[in-house]
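In this supplementary section we document a worked example of the pipeline. Step one takes a protein sequence of length 122 as its only input; no multiple sequence alignment statistics are reported here. Step two produces a three-dimensional model, which step three serialises into structure tokens for compact storage. The input and output of this example are shown verbatim.
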Amino acid sequence: MSATSFDLYLSRRDAYAAFLSAADDESAVCWRKADGQYPSADAARKAQDEAYAATRDAFNRIVVEPVGPYKEAHAVVEQIRLLGRAGGAEEQDWVAFKKAREVFVDAARVCLTETVEGTGCQ
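The serialised model returned by step three reads:
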């Protein structure tokens, strides 16, 4: 592996990991909000706004280079938005979120493998 492809691999790996962490954090905020764990609506809104900003930042780092799992990342973001809009914890579709997350992870692995192999990342 060349130094350039190694740097690209590390950059993508870090971007994908940051996105997953931000998505997990934001989904946890959605669950706590739906479960009524925040002391006030303002506290819930603030937590959700902060988590949204982190997820959006991490997503933007992936979507800027429209190769790899950017479509899969978008699906994860859409599932988080649905979690956040649900009226209560029982209305949240965690199966769909976890599936979208799993699809993203699989696509990220493929992209990283292709980066290491030098075959490019579609």
